[in-house]
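During the reporting period the student researcher (J.K.) took over the structure-prediction task from the postdoctoral fellow and processed the backlog of single-chain submissions. One of the processed entries is reproduced below for the supervisory committee.
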Amino acid sequence: MSAVEDKLASLGLTLPEVVPPLASYQPAVQSGVYVYTSGQLPMVEGKLPVTGKVGAEVTPEEAKELARTCALNALAAVKSVAGDLDRIARVVKVVGFVASATDFTGQPAVINGTSELLGEVLGDKGVHARSAVGVAVLPLDSPVEVEVQVELTKA
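J.K. obtained the following structure tokens:
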């Protein structure tokens, strides 16, 4: 097991299986020293634990936890192409989408679930640039979707 996966285990977390694509795309691709993930939903064992809009059917606290799950799924996708999470030199960018009720404006706090998990697991390598965007609807009525870009060390 890698040091990153050891850190996950120390937090009581395990790296999930890569979430299979819902359409015609790959969960992650590598270009040079960068890995780009597709949008990762908070799938757990093939299902969304919660659906709906944040600020309506889903609380911001629930959504923040879902964003943590998205981060775990993104790490699994990165590992699927990088082979080893210890190759992560740094997380470069996170883009988070929050399916929001029309009056909900707390998207950054929701996506903190992803940012905080990456920081807990990767330390300074997890510090990144970020966007947190409110949207009308996400695939499968997911409350949250996250994509991640990481830079790898040379193999």
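The committee noted the following: Strands lie at 28-31, 34-37, 88-99, 129-135, 144-152.
J.K. will present the remaining backlog at the next meeting.
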